[in-house]
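Task card 7
Instruction: Convert sequence to structure tokens.
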Amino acid sequence: AVYCCHGSYFEFNWNIYDDFTGSDYRYMEYYLDLRHYLQSSRNGIFAIQGTFTRVAGSAPIQAYPVLGDNRLRGFSARYMDKNMVTVQAEYRMGLWKDFGVAFFAGMGDVADHFDNFNLSKIKFGAGFGIRYMILSANKLNLRIDIGFGTHGNSSMTFRPGEAF
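Output:
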């Protein structure tokens, strides 16, 4: 597994759900994703990501942002609300042939209103993962991540592609 590349990534989405768009609900969803990648060695890369998600209006609960999976590993969809903020960092490096490892840590939380975010209630997660490059031309890895979070949470993720 070879990790390369450097640079930044920015994404902002604003989605409107209402009668005109064919939705049974009336709400808006905002999503901001900021990332930066630094090449640290020939086979290593340091990545950092910050995200913010908000749903406003009469959103159904299944539209609420959820801590866990790619957005804060170490949690299994236990925390959800109308607003979510996450920050996570990861170090990826190749080990041998098509195999690599990753070490990650992050923090985040959800709240009903942006003003109700409380630093004393923030959730933390950290862990490690194994990578196997399944498509070297596209640099696509199959990953297994094991994460441990605050309050006795844990998670295991098995899927193609990096978390971010």
